[in-house]
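Appendix B, Record 12. Input sequence as logged:
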Amino acid sequence: MRSTAMRVVFILLPGVLVTSSVDAAGTNRTTLVVRTYEAFRVDPSDWNTALEGASRILANAGIQIEWVHCSSYIAGKPDSGPARCTLSYSRNEVALRLVGQPTPGPAEQTLLGDSMLDRSVRSGTLATIYLGPVERLADRARVTTGTVMARAMAHELGHLLLGTNTHSARGLMRPVWTAEELTRNEPGDWSIPRDEGQKMRLALARRGVTRNG
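Logged structural output:
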């Protein structure tokens, strides 16, 4: 993608969230348990903003999030966490890890996050967010790191639920995000459309767990 005007955009490749330097819920909520693994220290206010923001985005789509902080600075030290973190994953559990930098890719693209999907069963269990690129994109868009992180987290968790790399033409799961859109902050750009939310709820229900919320 080329243009005489430079701007930051997000491009989503199959299950991958990158940047490139180029031009609700009812009363019965399905619960997704997310084990977090924070390999790099994050400013506490940004981390809390990210958790609250991702929870809010998914709650508006009818998905209740329960965070379990495992190998995380939030848990006290990098290699400690709740006893639950030593148990096998339940059907409604996934992992989200926060690391510093992605493996180097094309020069014009910087990876923000990705998700590992098993297309044979249309499901996923691991999403990764890359802190360095998230911080740089937030700085360019003049928004907080926590804001960008929240949206990237919700996006990747959406991929894990849907078990697909397909994207929509609108809302959070669209394939391209611009810095201007982040700055403008129109609610519709950062929410999950009703039809996609329904697909996520059905996919999570198929994992076998629901809870009254």
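Residues 145-162 form the longest helix (18 residues).
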